[in-house]
From TrEMBL:
DUF6593 domain residues: 10-156, 207-352
Protein name: DUF6593 domain-containing protein
Pfam families found in the cross-reference section: DUF6593
Superkingdom of this protein's organism: Eukaryota
Lineage, broadest ranks: Eukaryota, Fungi, Dikarya, Basidiomycota, Agaricomycotina
Length: 370
């Protein structure tokens, strides 16, 4: 058996590293209006390109031919989550999505591949893996290509279930109920040695598009920078050297965000709570919902428990006063710090648009592209 370790859990943006520590496969995606394009490479060779489409059937270019995914990798039957692929040599294998995603030979029933998805891979030493058995070794290229499709479809179903749907949906990495129970069980078995306290980040500037957030030790913990171009700007949010998210602010179109390897409209991932509401709500990977409210101060609460998660204290005339603007994250929100920083940047940018609109005699609109 050969075990490939994944650099990320996203089937659209990851590398598969072989047991010798060499990158064996590279999967990368580019995003455009109407969908995205995922390229799967082995060394310098492009194996396949998947054309994900929002308004049309997705297609794949593989072995020199472009066909719809439903033709080359169809469901095993109507409404089934399993998919079957037939190789050029006539062998058939089936990917099944049960508690784990795995692949078997249709002809022999032998296991060919198993995907072991690790929760919160960024914070754990154990990484996600794709195991290819000796029975599937001669099909490795095809197994990697079809895994990318099968796991993308599985992610869509997990997201749909999270939002109350029956199995379709977007492409995030939501957690299933059994996964949340597992995490809670781990926490009960290994409780923290001491309670976490509130963390106060001091902002170098009040701009949610260009600032650094400095932790209590005086180190730059988060960095928010923007580049401007015709038609909008791109705001990148980093923790250390890691890019957490990039927000694509657009003047004439709906703004989008690239987060966890997926690009979505802001209104999808961080929608208003009501049609005319200034509050916005985001569902974290754990299923927890956090709500940002703009009531004199911008602050965030848990939509489930009502507990305060974060408060933004904006200092007027920031450059001329010793007191700087701060973002406080409570103990209840500490495990959501990255998500709170990203959603704060969006929420405060929206709040600035409303303040500017009111100053100019508007009614509080100008919420800005999403």
């Amino acid at each position: 058996m050969t075990t490939y370790t994944l650099s990320r859990t996203s089937p659209k943006n990851t590398t598969l590293i072989d047991p010798g520590g060499t990158v064996a496969y590279e999967i990368s995606s580019t995003y455009h209006l109407g969908g995205s394009q995922t390229t799967i490479k082995k060394a310098d060779q492009t194996l396949a390109t998947i054309h994900w489409k929002v308004f049309q059937r997705s297609t794949i270019t593989w072995n020199g031919k472009t066909t719809t995914i439903s033709e080359i990798f169809p469901r095993s039957r109507t409404l089934s989550t399993s998919r079957v692929y037939t190789t050029p040599s006539g062998e058939q294998f089936k990917w099944k999505d049960r508690a784990k995603l795995y692949c078997v030979s249709v002809d022999t029933g032998l296991n060919l591949a198993m995907y072991e998805r690790t929760l919160f891979y960024l914070f754990r030493s154990k990484k996600s893996t794709l195991d290819i058995s000796s029975s599937g070794a001669h099909l490795t290229d095809a197994l990697v290509v079809t895994w990318a499709i099968a796991e993308k479809k599985a992610r869509d179903r997990r997201r749909s279930r999270r939002h109350g749907g029956g199995g379709g949906g977007g492409g995030g990495d939501a957690l299933d109920t059994w996964e949340i129970v597992y995490i809670l069980a781990l926490n009960l078995r290994n409780p923290p040695s001491s309670p976490k306290k509130m963390t106060t980040y001091v902002l170098s500037r009040t701009s949610p598009k260009n600032t650094t957030l400095i932790d209590p030790e005086g180190s730059t913990f988060y960095e928010v920078t923007s580049k401007y171009h015709l038609g909008g700007s791109d705001t990148t949010i980093k923790r250390g050297d890691q890019v957490l998210a990039t927000i694509h602010w657009k003047v004439f179109k709906r703004s989008t965000i690239t987060w966890d390897g997926e690009t979505m409209f802001i209104k999808e991932i961080f929608p208003r709570t009501g049609r005319f509401s200034t509050s916005r709500i985001h569902t974290a990977q754990t299923g927890e919902k956090l709500k940002w409210k703009d009531k004199g101060k911008l602050y965030c609460v848990s939509a489930d428990s009502g507990l305060n998660l974060a408060v933004y204290d904006r200092t007027h005339l920031h450059h001329f006063r010793s007191k700087k603007s701060t973002l406080e994250i409570t103990a209840s929100g500490s495990h959501l710090a990255d998500a709170l920083i990203i959603t704060w940047a969006i929420a405060e940018n929206k709040a600035r648009h409303r303040r500017r609109s009111r100053r100019n005699g508007g009614g509080g609109g100008g919420d800005g592209g999403g």
